[in-house]
Recover the amino acids of this structure.
């Protein structure tokens, strides 16, 4: 995600994305109740570099806002250069604001596992290594915890992935927005090499597998 990322590493990562599990194989979550409270809801997910994850969820119908940021550490260390050291406890994350009347928490998780990242990678994602790139679901309600844990068990039982799902399900202690230049990075820099080889394939995969979930499709 930084300029130091080698072109070859990015290319290899792109090839890996192209070989991910077909989203059509993913079942809908069996456990996916309506939230206890009405109105807009938020979800915080970590799946590697937040640039591509943000771009995926921005395109879903029912999602009104996605913010790139950090979760898992303290407010004082929630700065990109510090988080990049891998010593803060933070993971690059996105905060998704959505209308549960149009898209459920379980549906967000379906896209998270099927398109947004590879949940079988431990403390890395593609060419990026470190705990700050781990896969994690930060739940803020008992309902979110139940849906996340049940869906991981469901995917394991269905043997969707060849490897073990490494996604942690942990309580959200706080979410801190990243610096302004990280927000909507893909839309502002679609020709950036990292974006081209790591994140644009995710958007193509999303369009191919879940066209009915995209904004403008409903």
């Amino acid at each position: 995600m930084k300029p130091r990322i080698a072109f070859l590493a990015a290319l290899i990562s792109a090839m890996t994305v192209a070989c991910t599990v077909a989203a059509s194989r993913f079942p809908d979550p069996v456990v996916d109740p309506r939230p206890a409270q009405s109105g807009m809801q938020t979800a915080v997910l970590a799946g590697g570099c937040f640039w591509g994850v943000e771009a995926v969820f921005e395109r879903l119908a029912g999602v009104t806002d996605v913010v790139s940021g950090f979760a898992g550490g303290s407010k004082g260390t929630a700065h990109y250069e510090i988080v990049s050291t891998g010593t803060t406890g933070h993971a690059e994350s996105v905060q998704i604001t959505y209308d549960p009347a149009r898209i459920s928490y379980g549906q967000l998780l379906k896209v998270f596992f099927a398109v947004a990242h590879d949940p079988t990678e431990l403390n890395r994602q593609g060419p990026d290594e470190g705990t700050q790139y781990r896969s994690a679901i930060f739940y803020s309600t008992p309902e979110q915890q139940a849906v996340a844990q049940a869906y991981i068990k469901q995917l394991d039982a269905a043997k969707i992935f060849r490897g073990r799902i490494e996604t942690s399900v942990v309580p959200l202690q706080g979410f801190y927005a990243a610096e302004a230049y990280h927000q909507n990075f893909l839309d502002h820099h679609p020709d950036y090499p990292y974006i081209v080889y790591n994140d644009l394939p995710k958007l193509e995969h999303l369009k191919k597998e879940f066209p009915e979930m995209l904004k403008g499709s409903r």
Observations:
- The CA atoms of residues 71 and 175 lie 5 Å apart.
- The two ends are 33 Å apart (CA to CA).
